Amino acid sequence: MAGFFSKLKEGLAKTRNNIVHGIDSVFSGFSSIDEDFYEELEETLIMGDIGVNATNDILERLRGQVKENHIKEPAECKSFLIENIKEQMKVEETAYEFEHEQSVVLVIGVNGVGKTTSVGKLAGLLKEQGRKVLIAAADTYRAAACEQLTEWANRAGVDIISGAQGADPSSVVYDAVNAAKARHVDVLICDTAGRLHNKKNLMEELKKMNRIIDREFPGIHRENLIVLDGTTGQNALNQAREFSETAQITGIILTKMDGTSKGGIAVAIQSELNIPVKYIGVGEKLDDLQKFESAQFVNALFAVEE
C-alpha cells in the first residue's frame, strides 16, 4: 500500500498544483480571517473542481471551527480545512459489503473512461482477497472489448464468459449468471456497453440486464459501479447524473487520476450525487486500482506524509 500512496501522491501532482498551491496562497496572503478570506478560499476550491455543494459544506464547517476554537490566524485553520475535506469524502465500511458476499457487479460508463481495464483490475483485486471471480464480457458492440477483457481476465487469473461480437449483451449476462450459480462463484463482474446507437438504447439495455439478474439470481447482493475518467472534471459528474437516472449506482470507480489537474472532482462527485467513490485508479498495472480511502487521498493531495 505504501507503493500505492507514493503513486497516488505523484499522480495527484497536477491537481496539487491546481488546488493546493491556490489554497496555500490564500492562507499566506491573508493576515486575518474575514469575509474576503472565506470568499477567496471558496473561489479556489470551486476552481479546483471541488464543486459548489462540497465547498459550501467544507467552509460552513470551517467557519464553525474557527469560531469555536477562537482561531485568529489563517494559517492555524489549514489543518481544519484538510480534515474537513477528508470528512467530506469518507466512505463507510459498509460500502464494500459486496466484496465479502456472493454478488453480481455491473460496471457501467461511457466508452473511453477505462471501463474494461477497471473490470480486469477489480477482478484481480477481489481474487487477491481469495474470492472466486467470474467476468462477463457483455460489451458485445465494441470489437476489441472482448479481446481486451480476455487479456485482463488472464492477467487476473479468473474465468470469463463471452458471446459473439454483436450478440445480445443480455444473453451474455444470462449465461454468466447461470455459470456463476453452477460454479459457486463469489463475485460475478459484468462489463457493459458504453455506447449504443443512442442513449435510450443503452439505458434500455441496462434495464434489461438488471431484470435478468433479478429473475435468475433473486436476492443476490447487487452492486452497480460507474467508471468515471478523472481527467474530464465536471463532465464526469454529468455522466454519473445521467446514468443514475437509469441504474441505481452504488459506487464510483475513478480512473486516470495520475494525469489530471481535476482530481478535486472526487470530492464534488461524492457530495453532489451522494454516491461514494469506492475505487481509484492511478495507472495501467493490475494493482493500480485500489480501494478509495479519503484520508490517504487527501494526504496525498496535500503531500502530507502518511
What report would you give on this structure?
There is one protein chain. With 306 residues, the protein is α/β, with parallel strands linked by helices. The chain contains 12 helices and 8 strands. The protein has helices at residues 2-11, 13-29, 35-47, 52-68, 78-88, 115-128, 143-156, 169-182, 199-216, 234-244, 265-273, 294-301, and strands at residues 103-108, 133-138, 159-162, 187-192, 221-229, 251-255, 277-281, 289-291. The protein has an 8-stranded mixed β-sheet with strand order 3-2-4-1-5-6-7-8, sandwiched between helices. Strand 5 (221-229), helix 10 (234-244) and strand 6 (251-255) form a beta-alpha-beta unit. It starts with a helix and ends in a 5-residue tail after the last helix. The mean pLDDT is 88.
Short description:
With 306 residues, the protein is an alpha/beta fold. The chain is 51% helix and 14% strand.
User: Which consecutive residue ranges, at least 5 long each, have pLDDT under 50?
Assistant: none
Number of helices: 12
Radius of gyration: 21 Å
Binned strand content:
5-15%
Strand order of the largest sheet: 3-2-4-1-5-6-7-8
The first-to-last residue Cα distance is 11 Å
State mean pLDDT (0 to 100 scale): 88
